[in-house]
Amino acid sequence: MNPEGKPGQEPSAKTWSGRFSVPIAESVKTYTASVTFDQRLAEFDIQGSLAHAQMLAEAALISQEDFLAIQTGLSTILDEIRQGTFPWNLDDEDVHLNIERRLTHLVGDAGKRLHTARSRNDQVATDIRLYLRHEIDRLRELLAATQAALLDLAELHAATPMPGFTHLQVAQPVTFGHHMMAYVEMFGRDRERLADCRHRVNRLPLGAAALAGTSYPIRRERVAELLDFEALCPNSLDAVSDRDFAIEFCAAAALVMTHVSRLSEEFILWTSPRFNFIRIGDAFCTGSSIMPQKRNPDVPELARGKTGRVTGHLMALLTLMKGQPLAYNKDNQEDKEPLFDTVDTLGTTLTILAEMLRQITVNAPALRAAALEGFSTATDLADYLVKKGMPFRDAHEVVARAVRLAEEQGCDLSGLSLQTLRSHSTLIDADVFAVLTLEGSLASRNIPGGTAPDQVRAAIQVARLNLQR
Ligand code: ARG
Q1: Residue 6: pLDDT above 70?
Q2: Ligand 1: does its nearest atom lie under 6 Å from the Cβ of 113?
């Protein structure tokens, strides 16, 4: 930041200072400025200005020479920004005025003509949309990379039995692959949601000007075409004041993080020696400064923790908007930090999650032992009896008694002798052991969406195809 302005920068009176008899208070200047954080929009601001200037030139609202001068100036500015030499100046309030002043310094009056038929209100709305569109594309790719990592894990363990839980109590056997595929589905819907949100982000506010449109004969469609927007924002008041595209994005992002958080929570449990289901690679664990034996799952813990802040940003934006009358209000300047932090948090979290997933080893023997421990095939025994003609409620009762006995004898259901099992129901024959094993139980759930290894492999195939979309 350069409060004085670097050499070569115009001395800065506020762009709008002509209206006032005394200069703005220092405290107000600092309080109202956004350039410290909205600098991030600079490349998109330039992109938008270039399209606007080209349209102005095509409509003969500025001369061809002015357009060329603007192009040259903006390209110099882009270089300066990329190289970190751009003289950012707090006196110039925000990214838009900083770039405009620099442009005018570099190319003279042409720079002053750029703002014809435009306001910072439609300009900033356009910048955020360009920025967010770009980030949505990047985040969708990161989601796909996360899914790809999950799919590889799922493929490797399409037939590895583990206990499936409800209420965190052992319920029925599932495969580890099936469990991973549940998250592939969640992230797939997240990717769909972002694609859907992108359509509403991808509309052009420019032309709305301050709030009422402009009296210049501009061609908004041309600007939309140049910037690859799929539609115009149809109402000028709405165009400058609406931020629901950003709120919608934050809602989709909060859901992504919620899914990440659930997965993280499971990983945290599973790496605990009490479960010992998986091991996270050393590079993704941290030690304790006091307890030498510790391997802490800091990455999933932080991911779980950061979910709170993303959900918080969604609340911040909803609250920011709820009391605003039409049209633009300065409140809207407060949209940026929550939005940027949401994008950053999602980006870094998905990046590290995809990397971490590639460093996970699954402890198949521990999963199997845990699946055997909790009488997870009890439902299979009940289903077996039902298939032999017993009403389900009676079968439930018979199996409950068999489970109690097995518990007393300290064995699994398949550890009971045929004779013992038959003492509970004579419908039981030797073929019962096929359904009492984990493999028998898994294989029997052979319907679409079920946990049978063949179904899991089929689901993996479909998901791999969907990854291309
Ligand atoms: N920095 C402002 C924002 O982020 C740009 C728009 C300013 N418009 C205005 N009328 N003061 O919203």
Answers
A1: no
A2: no
